[in-house]
Prior knowledge:
This protein is of the alpha/beta class. It has one domain: P-loop containing nucleotide triphosphate hydrolases (Rossmann fold, 3-Layer(aba) Sandwich), CATH 3.40.50. Helices cover 45% and strands 15% of the residues. The protein is built from 9 helices and 9 strands. The strands form 2 sheets. The chain has a 5-stranded parallel sheet with strand order 3-7-2-8-9. Mean pLDDT is 91; it is low at 1-5 and 7-16. Residues 30, 52-53, 56-57, 109, 112-113, 116, 142-144, 193, 197 line the site of cytidine-5'-monophosphate (C5P).
Amino acid sequence: MNAAPVSPAGAAPADSSAAQVPVIAIDGPTASGKGTVAQRVAAALGFACLDSGALYRIVGLLALERDTDLDDGPRLAALAARLQPRFEDGQVLLDGRDITEAIRREDVGRAASRVAAVGPLRAALLALQRQQRRPPGLVADGRDMGTVVFPDACLKVYLQADVRVRAERRLKQLIEKGYSANLADLLQTLRERDQRDQTRDCAPLIAAEDAKVLDSTTLTVEEVVAQVLQWYRGL
Ligand code: C5P
C-alpha cells in the first residue's frame, strides 16, 4: 500500500495471475520493527507494501468513534466490508479524511488488538489484503501474512525482539513525535497485546512453519533489511 490507493473489497484482482506475483511476508509481535523493515525492503525491490495492521487500526478507530462493541463480529465485518482507505505519500485517508495520526494512537492500537480477535472481521479483511498482490511484488507485514493471508509467500520472515527493547523503541518513537509516554505503561501494553495476539483462536500470532525467524534485539534496522534482502535474492 505504498503510495497507492487500496482497492475496495470486492473489486477484481489487479492481475489474474496474482499467484505468480512474489510476496515477502513479514510477521511478528507489536513494535518488532516490521513496518519499517517492510517499507525499506519494498523500496529496495520496487515492490508495493501492505501494512495490514493499519487496516485493523482503521476498524478500531471507527469502532471507537461509533461506539461499536469491540466484540461485535457482524457489525465490525460490515464496517470492514465498506472500507476504502487510501495510502498515499505516507498518509492514510478514509473518505477524504486524514487519519494518519489518529490510527497511531495507543487507544486505537489497543482497540485494533481487540477487534483483531474477531473472526468475522478477519474474514472480511482477507480480500482487501489479497488484492494488494500486484506485479512486480508485495511486501506484507502483520501477524498472519505467512500463515493465513499469503500462505504461498516466497519468503516468510518472523521478526521478533525482546519485549523490553521493543518498549524502549516505541517510547523513543513516541517521544520523537512529541507524545508523552512512560516505559512501564508501554511494557504492560505490549505484553497484553502480545498475549492477546498469540492466544486468540483466529489467526494467532505464530511463526509459519516455513518462516525464517530473525531476532532483531541487537540488530539495527539496516542489518535486518540487509538480511531479508539477502534471503530474498538467494531464493
Ligand atoms: O501492526 P500493528 O501494531 O499496527 O497492528 C495493530 C493490531 O492489529 C495488532 O495489535 C494486532 O492485534 C492486529 N493485527 C492482526 N493481524 C495483522 C496485523 C495486525 O491481528 N495481520
